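Q: My labmate handed me this sequence with no annotations at all. I'd like to see what the chain might look like in three dimensions before we decide whether it's worth expressing. Could you predict it?
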Amino acid sequence: MQAKETLFADLVQGRAQQFQVPLYQRTYSWTEKQLGQLWKDVLEQAELIERGEKANTHFLGSVVLAPSPQNEATFPRWLVVDGQQRLTTLSLALAAIRDHIRDAQPDEAERIDEEYLINKRKTGSDHFRLLPTQADRPQFAAHVRGPHTEQTAGGSVAAAYTFFRRKLVEAADPAAPQDVFRIEQAITSRLTLVAVTAERGDNVHRIFESLNNTGLKLSQADLLRNYLFMKLPTRGEHIYETYWLPLQTSLSNEELEQLMWLQLVLDGDDRVRRQDLYASQQQHFERGGAREDEIEAYIKELHRSAALFRRLLHPEEEPDPSVRAHLHRLHTWQALATYPALMLLLDRRERGELDSADTARALSYVESFLVRRMICRVPPNSLGRIFQAVPAQLPLDVSVADGLRQVLSADNRFWPDDDELREKIQKAPFYRYGLAPQRKLVLQRLEESYEHPEPVDFAAARLTIEHVMPQSPGDEWLRMLGEDAADGENPKDLHSRLQHTLGNLTLTAVNSELSNHPFERKQGLLQSSHLEMNRRIAATERWGAKEILARADELTDRAVALWPSPLHGVGRAERSRDWHLAHQVLAALPHGTWTSYGDLAAFLGSGAQAVGNHLAGTPGVANAYRVLTSEGKVSDGFRWTSGDEDGDVRSRLTADGVAFTVTGAADPTQRLNADDLALLVADADDQTEDSASISVQTTPKTPGEETRADRFFRQLAADDSPETVEAVRALLARWEELGGWIGHGAGQVTTSAFLMLGKAGAPGRGIWPLTLYPGTGRGGTAQVVFQYLAAREPFTDRGLRLEFLKRLNDLEGVDIPEGKLELHPSFRLSALESDRNRELLGEALAWFRDRWESRNTA
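A: Here is what I predict for the chain of 858 residues:
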């Protein structure tokens, strides 16, 4: 047996060879959790390459190889006893890079192919450097051959390839573009592996067990603490009792590690990574001789800084009311990336370099930077780098607050100015970007700007976001929109474009009562609201496109006053990020789906014609041919943008799993609307306000008040037949017989019923396969939360989600396409009127429960 450290490039490059995954191995099973961590590590290594740092490679794990029985002297073949998940993932990442650059740099794409993926002169299965286990071979082979080969739908292999295609587009973010060839270099030459090569007769399975039997790893804080006190032979006990023990008591180990990292950043190290904290701080001390007085001074400084750091974690500990209000909002925003700048401001105030008024002013710039970027849909992926650089970049010739504003206004920081803010408030689907607490906070601040003499206690009020024009409009709403439609836009397109914009959103505690009623009925409820913004909405005579846009202008004026603009005269970056977002979402289109120009435009906050012009004039946009007209037809003006494209669009769509009706239109069930597109690039854990407040409520909170369950069935009966209502009651009773419980949400457009497993009444700890919603003018629906399930065991296994989908599709009238396996598809509750359908759904839910219980009792 031989064991040596190696790199992916060294392992697979060179002469023709093949790595075979034995048939007894499990299939490829990495999910977005593992892929996301790998991608983070790759980007960190790419950044180190950019800075010219050769050390600090990332250890990826082990690979255990044994000679294959099919081995030949001229063509070595190796069995991959351990490490197939890593090798498969890296190969798919390189295939995605190859396809990402294929149009612009075909020679480089061919180089990647020949160096890492294929044996150029071999045919059949020998053509591939890596040969996965048999079940994965068709998908893997299709992706290695290239993006234009016919690929079967689904599977973890396809999901991983799509993940990397999407992340490569995201990495081209104009705010902080990553060079794709540095990413390639990071994958091939910066991820180290331990390759264990066995001889014939060696017990490779024993080797596998030894390498995978690992203990609990020490944190960076543990390592640094141990080092510090080893260097305090005479003063250690006193320093521990006086400074370290209170420090350790006031902060968790995770928080202490974060503080130690922040201390390095404040000292000017704007490139240190948290995982390199111990090594960096150790090197600093060793350069100075690691004297006891130096280490004691460091621990004293940590002890002092801990009180400031706690104000970021617990804003109520900040004594100044204005600073406390800013810190509280940033805490609600979950603005961890800003901590280097916040700590700098609190530290400079502590040292007397600025007062509380200037600290609050500087914090307002940080808040504005975050809020304006979110409203204008600037991706947050570069925030960490921006704020980590602040302490080192702060100019010395101006005040701290003015210097911070200057740094954040610099080129490629993308702090939107007033003109861009106004455009995005009018057009962008605000409700579909950022985190739920962030959206709510923006509306709260706008309400506070009215300075009502009896302001609402937002901490006590149970407010949720309400769409004034509902998400599922009835006929009266569509008739009103028809009055405003122009330039060939129909009422549904107008609704899709405006429904999620800020001008149509407000806060209310009576969300379920407002529901989807006509505007005249909503006016009374809004008029009696304690919120000034609601009374202003109620004062209008109607609520159509003109009124929504007029309110957007009013809110923009308030937003401009609330959140300061960047400095003028500092270089601004090109306005290309909207198209960057379009490229991201198109790269993420699942197999077997398509979208329309109008859907993509509504998602972007743009116009359908502008979308068409951009796609027609921009080569290399992944899946651009899967954007069709609203009727599901290829646009008359469609042209391939790359010279080497061939074949008609319909053939390519068919190869991508898109079906066509007898009229020649793409299957409408496979169409992704603007909301579906938003889910493709959203965090799966950013669920709606409903999921954060699922509860069991068996009795009214006050006499005469109906329970959430009563309200759910009242709303259901208002729009569905008595037969459907009784069928839903039977379904919920069946779920409770299976050991589940029924939770009800408090927010969104209407109330809802969640079919929950897990501890009753414990939000966030359970799992649910379906959410039932009452009628919205067209009948109640059952929503299948596939995107949510994809991040929860055991349903991270795509095969289990696919099996659940197939069982649901056994119901008559239910036909959910496989392309929506990562989304939130739904079917009508009226389908449950059929006894056979209720029986089949009960069997599907019992199967779901059994899979979940087997995972949680294993």
